[in-house]
Structures are given as C-alpha cells and as structure tokens.
Design a protein that fits this description.
Layout: H1 3-34, H2 38-51, H3 55-67, H4 71-84, H5 89-101, H6 105-116, H7 123-135, H8 139-152, H9 158-168, H10 172-185, H11 190-200, H12 209-223, H13 228-240, H14 244-257, H15 263-274, H16 278-291, H17 296-314, H18 319-334, H19 339-355, H20 360-370, H21 378-394, H22 398-411, H23 416-431, H24 435-445, H25 451-467, H26 474-488, H27 492-505, H28 512-525, H29 529-542, H30 549-563, H31 567-580, H32 587-598
Helix pairs in contact: 1-2, 2-3, 3-4, 5-6, 7-8, 7-9, 8-9, 9-10, 10-11, 10-12, 12-13, 13-14, 14-15, 15-16, 15-17, 16-17, 17-18, 17-19, 19-20, 19-21, 20-21, 21-22, 22-23, 23-24, 24-25, 26-27, 26-28, 27-28, 28-29, 29-30, 30-31, 31-32
Length: about 600
C-alpha cells in the first residue's frame, strides 16, 4: 500500500469521525436545550459555533446566554458575530433590540445611529427591515427610514409601507389614505392593496368600516377621475360587501367611461353566476351584447349558461321566459357551425327542452341528429349519448337508455363519465325492481374516484340494504322504485299518489323516511323550496335515526342558503347536521358552508 493511498484512507476516516462527532454534538445540544438544561447545551453550542459560526448555531448559542441571564456573555457573542458579518443589518438590529430590552439605551443608540447611515439598494431587504421595526413598535424610526428613502428613490410604492405603519399604529383611516395614494402612482399594486384592506377592515353588514371605505374610494375617484383604478376598487368593494346592484352600476359606468371591451361586465356577470344572482348576471351579459362590445360572442355564450342555471337550479321561469330562452339558444346554435363548439350548448338546450319545457321528443331528435355530425370528438359524442339516454328514461324508454349507459360504461371504464353511466344503469335496474343486479353495480361504484358518484351509490345501496332484506318487502320496494322513476320523469302527481298508497298498503315496510325524502326531492325539482324543507324536516323529526336524516339536514341547509338566501336558517340546519351526525359524508361540505355563511376569512 503506497504512502499516498494510506494517507488518503486516514484522511477520509478522520473526516468521517469528525462528521459523526459533529452530529453527536448537535443531538446532545438539541437534547439539553429542549429540556431547558441551558448550561449543558451551551457547552455544545459553543463548540459547534466555533467550528461553524452559522446563523443557526449563533441563535441557539445566544439563546443559551439569554436563558442563563448572562448578558455579558451574550454581548460578547453579538460583537464577535457582528465582526464576522459587519454588513448584516438584521443582525445589528437584533443587537439593538438586545440592548433596549436590557435597558442599555446608550449602547442601543450607538447601533441605531450606525444603522441610520446604512444605504439600502435592495427593495425587499428594505421592506423586511421596516417590517421588523413595525413589529417591535419602533414606529418613529420606521417613519424616518421611509421618509429618508423617499428622498433617494423615486419609483417605489412607499405609500404601501406607510399604510402598514399607520395600520400598526391603529390609524386605519390614514392607512387607507396611504394605500389609495399609492394606487394613484402604482395601479399594478391593486391586488396587494385589496388584500391589505380585506385583512384590515370588517366587511360584515353591521360594520362601521364600510362607510369609511366607500367614502375614501369615492373621494379618491373624484380627485382623480381619469384614473380607472379607483372605479375598479369601488367595484371590488361593492362585491366584497355583496352589494351587487351597486357594483353593476359602477361596472356599466366603467366600461363606458374608459372605452372598455366588455371584459369587466363579463367578469362581473360570472361573479353573479357564482353567487346565483341570475337576473343581475343576465343584465351584465345583455349589456355587453346590446352595446356591441368586442366580447359580444363570449357574452352570448355566458347568457345561455345563465339561462340554463336559472332554469335547472333556481327553477323559476314563466312560459314566456321559457320561450325566450328557447329562441336565444336556437339563435346562437344556428350561428355556431362548429359541431364541437355547439356541443355543450346543445346538451344544455336539450336538457331544458326535455326536462323543463315538456319537449322531450324535440330534444331527442336534436341529439340523435348530433351523432350524424362529422368531426365530433369522442368525449363530446359520449356526453351526447349520456344526455340522450337520460331523455330516454324521461320518456319511459328505460331499456334503450340502459344500452347506451352500458356502452358508455364499457368505453370509459376508468373515467368519471363511465362511472356516471354505470350508476345510471344501476338505477335503471333498480327502477325495474332488479334489486340484486342494481346492488352489485352499486357495490363497485362505492369505490369510484368521483365523490359525487360514490356518495350517490352509497346512498342508494344503503337504502336497498335497509329496506330490501326480506321477501315480504319486495312488493313495497317495487312500488317505491316505480314512484322514484315517475319523479325522475317529472310525473309528480302520479308519483305522490303511489307513494301515499305505499304507506297505506305496506305499513310494515317502514318506508316513511324514504317517502318523505323522495317527496322532498320532487318538490325541489318543481322549485317549491319551502315545501321541500317541510318534508325533509318531517323526516328528521319523525325518524332521527334514519340513514337519510343527515342527507335531509344537508338538503335543508343548502336550500336555505342558495335558494331562500336565509343565512341564519342555513347555519341552523348545517350545525344540526354536524352536532347530531359527526360521521356523515356531508360533514366537510356542511363545515365549509358554515364558514362561508359566517364570512370567515380563508386561512393559508
């Protein structure tokens, strides 16, 4: 073995031993520190710091001195570390706070004077420095530093920092004033200012802050009428305050004053859609169309989407309104030759025709013609086939529907649309009282990746397990399934007669909770929200142990929240669900709904 090779082996062994020893020292230092044995920890941190004077070891070594109340030792360590890092302003600031906390004002004053001579060339570094001063309530020093920097740097939003300073001092009016002054020069900081205002002020209806914010925005807009940012802020404010009517007026004015292309009206309309304010959403999209803005085509598409949601969710429309909707769809569809662009619109249109306008045969004819269109993508063909199968169920061609559902299940076995088709096919067999086959399909779907399909499959499966355990229940369940089909086909009067007869003819079947729930669904389908809540409430009050009780409470909360706009009632129902049914599959959704209703701010 050569001398060089032996030296190399020796060097590597020594290096490994040193590394292992260092790891042991770190473990022992942490152990003693976490157990408040600071004198023992100090021995190891001194050793570690001397071999590696990093920030981590410095701070832990310093903490040992502080906890042992050894101010001289801590001061000595500060001076040593500062000599190694003379340009570290945050280390010097830390040293300053060390002196002030120990009442050594003259020494602190000397460090402060040195720091005040420092020049900052990094904006982020300066922001962090000011943040530290504000955090430690060094407000005057922070103000002086900002004013000094303003004299040397012109193109920087110092007003935002001054806003933070006034906020920390409790002067929100002055903070708001500074933020708005900053926007006049730097409108690209609009979202940052919105975040600051949103985090600083109370936007609830009873808040006294609302008048202050609105007045500040209006005054700023009047002082600088050619700057669009203030109108944008006023729009944002009204949206935060959920004053959609006032926001709409500002958006209309904004588009006209600043020669917009319809973008803000479109965005406003989408926000209204998210909040299910369908009339105002329609007004916004129609405004884009009527004014002939550049985004007219986009507005036409969103207007149709609004009609669709208003009919299928709110379920409020007159025969005249329905005819207007049908004409609007026909107009846009005729002006859209591309079959794939037409596809989603056609699905919406045929759902409206079949399930709400009483024109199922027309809807079926349109979809059957869709299959003849060249260039349609596979997924769009699949969606059309699914909608067509749904319409076949509506007109009582359930086995034609079953064939399509099975085809989709086979073609898209591992995709969401395939799972949806399998579930709908299981329902076809359930409608026909083939409960064993339906249950087998539902057992597969309980593991579906789609939460909605999985929950629906679980609910139907549990209902079958609970009520179809005995041969004597078969006839009652068959009658119930037939009524469920009638409701799916919107034959409500016939379905209600059948459900009432089940209670009379099969009292031993104990299907009353399922019947209350199904009737509640039926009234929801008709847009009779108060009656739906009444029926769900009867289910909960008469059979609190029913497997449908948590479902009923969730439906009651959702209706109160989204349809009746009764926040207090909605929270009551959601809270009852959480309190009484902590294992419910709707627990997460109910909790989220409560947070939204209370106006809780998101926590990152």
């Amino acid at each position: 073995m050569s001398i060089v090779f032996r030296f190399l082996v020796f060097f590597l062994l020594c290096k490994g031993w040193v590394y292992a020893q260092s790891e042991t020292d770190i473990q022992l230092a942490q152990h003693y520190f976490l157990n408040n044995e600071f004198s023992k920890a100090q021995v190891y941190y001194e050793k570690l710091y001397n071999s590696d004077p990093s920030k981590v070891f410095f701070n832990r070594y310093l903490d040992c001195f502080v906890n042992l109340k050894d101010t001289k030792g801590a001061e000595k360590l500060f001076k040593k570390h500062l000599s190694l890092h003379p340009d570290d302003v945050f280390l010097a600031l830390q040293f300053y706070f060390f002196y002030t906390s120990n009442g050594e004002t003259e020494k602190a004053k000397k460090i402060k004077q040195d720091l005040q001579k420092k020049k900052f060339y990094d904006a982020k570094l300066f922001e962090d420095f000011i943040a530290q001063l504000i955090k430690r309530k060094e407000f005057e020093w922070a103000k002086q530093s900002i004013e000094a920097m303003q004299k040397t740097i012109q193109n920087y939003p110092f007003e935002l920092l001054l806003g933070e300073l006034h906020k920390a001092q409790g002067d929100l009016a002055q903070a708001l004033n500074q933020w708005l002054k900053g926007l006049a020069k730097f409108p690209n900081f609009k979202e940052k200012v919105q975040q600051d205002i949103g985090a600083s002020f109370d936007f609830t209806e009873e808040s006294e802050d609302l008048a202050l914010i609105q007045q500040s925005f209006v005054l700023a807009s009047q002082e600088d009428p050619e700057n669009p940012v203030y109108t944008e802020m006023l729009i944002w404010f009204f949206l935060q305050n959920r004053n959609f009517d006032a926001a709409y007026q500002q958006v209309v004015s904004y588009e006209k004053r600043f020669l917009g292309d319809g973008y803000y009206l479109l965005e406003f309309g989408k926000t209204c859609l998210e909040n299910e304010d369908f009339p105002l959403a329609s007004s916004a999209f129609k405004q884009v169309i009527d004014e002939g803005y550049n985004r007219l085509k986009e507005a036409e598409r969103w207007l149709l989407k609004t009609y669709f949601l208003q009919i299928t969710k709110a379920r409020k429309f007159t025969p005249k309104e329905m005819e207007e909707v049908i004409q609007a769809y026909e107009k846009v569809l005729n002006m859209t030759p591309n079959v794939n662009l037409r596809s989603d619109m056609l699905l919406e249109f045929t759902e409206i025709l079949g399930f709400y306008a009483g024109k199922a045969n027309q809807a079926i004819a349109l979809l059957e013609k869709q299959f003849e269109s060249a260039g349609l993508t596979d997924i769009n063909k699949a969606k059309a086939k699914m909608k067509l199968a749904d319409l076949y169920v509506l007109v009582d061609r359930i086995w034609d529907a079953s064939i399509y559902y099975m085809q989709l299940d086979e073609a898209f076995k591992f995709e969401a649309i395939g799972n949806e088709a399998k579930f709908k096919n299981a329902r076809v067999f359930y409608f026909d009282a083939e409960f064993d086959y339906a249950q087998a399909q539902l057992d597969v779907l309980k593991q579906a990746t789609s939460k909605l399909i999985s929950n629906d499959a679980m609910q139907l499966s549990l209902m079958l397990l609970e009520n179809y355990g005995l041969d004597s229940n078969y006839e009652a369940m068959s009658a119930y399934a037939k009524c469920d089909l009638l409701i799916t086909q919107h034959k409500f009067a016939e379905a209600f007669i059948g459900l009432d007869s089940i209670l009379i003819n099969f009292p031993e079947a104990e299907l009353s909770d399922e019947i209350f729930f199904l009737k509640g669904n039926a009234y929801e389908s008709q847009g009779d929200w108060p009656m739906a809540i009444t029926l769900y409430g009867e289910l909960v009050s008469k059979d609190a142990n029913s497997i449908l009780a948590d479902d009923a409470l969730y439906r009651m909360g959702s209706i109160a929240q989204m349809q009746l706009k009764n926040s207090e009632e909605a929270q009551t129902h959601f809270m009852a669900l959480i309190d009484k049914y902590p294992a419910s599959i709707f627990l997460e959704e109910a909790s989220q709904a409560i947070r939204k209703l209370r106006g809780d701010k998101a926590v990152n």
